[in-house]
Amino acid sequence: YDCFGNGQYRSATGYRHRHKDALVQIVNELAGKTLCHLLIPTSHAGSVDYLKKFIFRLEQAVSLLRAKNPRALLCIIIDAADNAQMAAEEIGEARAFIRDLLREQIPDGVRIVALCRSHRQDKLDPPPSALSLELESFGRDETAAHLR
How far apart are CA 23 and CA 1, in angstroms? Predict the structure, then answer.
């Protein structure tokens, strides 16, 4: 899931930080691969409701994957997670979906990967148990090889 959304994450018509947008899109992409039930947004659901339904559908998806391969992992990758939190704060919301998701009990066999700029990790308020890895820049030789 891309929280940056081609730079539209700050636009009212392109919000990508809300639970009702992000979690619904992720679930429905999994549903499109027949791994879980669809999630239909409703005006009556709040952030907690979306998190509960999201976790349930992760359980469905990983169960189906593990029925075929008991060692299967379902990885949900959230790109530009720091941008989601920044967008939430800019409109007076305390928490983007990713901050809440990182604090949830995630089903066995599921991994949540949140990508952000190193100097903005604190925006995500990850739990102490979260594994933090810093990606290093390419060296000159690596960059030259990549360009070729």
Answer: 9
| Angstrom distance (rounded) from CA 114 to CA 126 | 10
State the helix-helix crossing angle for 19-32 and 47-68, rounded to 10 degrees.
Answer: 20
**In angstroms, what CA-CA distances link 143 with 33, 118, 125, 139, 148?**
36, 21, 32, 6, 9
* Token output for 37: 């039930």
- What residues does each domain of the chain span? 5-147
DSSP string of 12-23, one letter each residue = TTS--SSHHHHH
- Name the amino acid, one letter, at 47: S
pLDDT per residue as tens digits for the range 93-137: 999 999 999 999 999 999 999 999 999 999 999 999 999 998 888
What are 98's two structure tokens? Answer: 């990713």
Helix (H, G, I), strand (E, B) or coil at 94: coil
What's the pTM value of the predicted model, to 2 decimals? 0.89
Long-range contacts of 101-106 (CB under 8 A, 24+ apart): 101/23, 101/51, 101/54, 102/126, 102/127, 102/130, 103/127, 104/51, 104/55, 105/55, 106/55, 106/58
